[in-house]
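Field notebook, page 244. I keep forgetting to write these up properly, so this time I am using the form the group agreed on. The chain and the ligand, thymidine-5'-phosphate, are recorded exactly as supplied. Prediction of the bound pose follows.
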Amino acid sequence: MASTHGSLLYEGKAKQVFETDHPDEFLVHFKNDATAFNAKKHAQLEGKGSLNCQISAFIFKFLESKGVPTHYLDINGDSWMLVQKVEVFPLEIVIRNVASGSLCKETPIEPGTKLCNPLLDLYYKDDDLGDPLLTDERISLLALVSSTKLLEIKTLALTVNGHLQEFFKKLNLLLVDFKLEMGLTKNGQLVVADEISPDSCRIWDLNTYDQEDRILDKDRFRRDLGGVLEGYSEVLRRIQEFSS
Ligand code: TMP
Ligand code: ASP
């Protein structure tokens, strides 16, 4: 297993990706940077990187145990993750179980409305364009992914949602919505990549009725609610308690 990193290949808002001495493995560093609204809002939250790395690692391992392929290989220190090299599609795959966030800004649906079926929204991952919402026709026009692969992506995303909803429910947490990224390994296998953490999910505490207090995810940062790290730590605490 690689333990030291080589050159920096890519730096995003919340993570850095480094080469390793193995051509098919990358090291991902989870940063403490918190950003929202396409980085118009930015802060350093000491410990966030580590929390997201630990939570993502657990969730990837859980998904693997359910037969869902992911890029995860190992944890490599506090906020470092060893992953398979993956060619990631420029898509943000969002699955919504309860209406919140942009869905409620862009439609008349009331926040908190339980959706009869999970809603899958695809966004074009392009910061300069502000990650616009896509249609199947636009995906085809832009040749982002073939229609066969798109169907595979959607099917896998809904499978992940089923597993995660059930998992979070056991922790007394509600998975409101979340964002996935997917890509292809060198063998052409479709895998879940990036991270699955309170940065990329909306998670509500089912033990808490107050509409703000129940929020355990990045909405605490987006909405200036305070207690961001406390929220993330509570998610990790419940995961660890469940798995011990
Ligand atoms: P939205 O309601 O703002 O469209 O967000 C839906 C979900 O996607 C929510 O759980 C947060 C996550 N998300 C990201 O992970 N990255 C992003 O850049 C955005 C906008 C949302
Ligand atoms: N991650 C995005 C940003 O950095 C948006 C968000 O999560 O709200 O701006």
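OBSERVATIONS:
- The chain has two domains: 8-84, 87-226.
- Residues 94, 100-103, 131, 177-179, 200-202 surround thymidine-5'-phosphate (ligand 1) (CB under 6 Å).
FOLLOW-UP: compare against the apo run.
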